[in-house]
Amino acid sequence: MSMTLIAIFDVPHDVVDRFFGDWQENRDFMSGQPGFVEDTLYRAARSSARARIVNVAHWRSHEQWSRYLYGEWVGKAAGCIGYGGNAGARAVEQLRLVLLELRMSSLRDAVHIEDLWDRLRDGQFHVSERQEQQLHRVLDGLHAWSRAPAVDAAVS
Fold this sequence. Notes:
It is a single chain. This protein is an alpha+beta fold. It is 42% helix and 31% strand. It has 5 helices and 7 strands; from the N terminus they run E-H-E-E-H-E-H-E-H-E-E-H. It has helices at residues 16-30, 62-73, 86-101, 116-119, 129-146; strands at 3-12, 36-43, 50-59, 77-83, 105-113, 120-121, 124-125. The strands form 3 sheets. Strands 1-3-2 form a 3-stranded antiparallel β-sheet. It has a two-stranded parallel ribbon with strand order 4-5. The protein has a two-stranded antiparallel ribbon with strand order 6-7. The longest helix has 18 residues, at 129-146. The mean pLDDT is 85.
């Protein structure tokens, strides 16, 4: 049975072109994955501070998508970054449940960005001192995991 994934992104207008360029690189990679059929990006026709972009991706089967996902992620560490205050913190906690299902190790530390769009100026992200400290803890944790012995990532 085929599978369709839908992802929604809210992107500041001044980085939309870069988003589409980066997505093309991702598409080039994904097109080589067994079972990947195609994806299409749609940009919502609305005016606001951000552009809503929707990706619709098609896979031949849930099994092939799962094999790709597990093969790519099982046994690896992940650091989480959430934005949006309390909603961002809740999203990080939900993401950690997904990471567990993928047999990944979620770091205890995370980066919480309450004011994401205020910190994005001229295509650059300007972090607060607290966010920079959080980021260093996450990166240090990922670095420590990278030196850990390999884990058997076989999917049963």
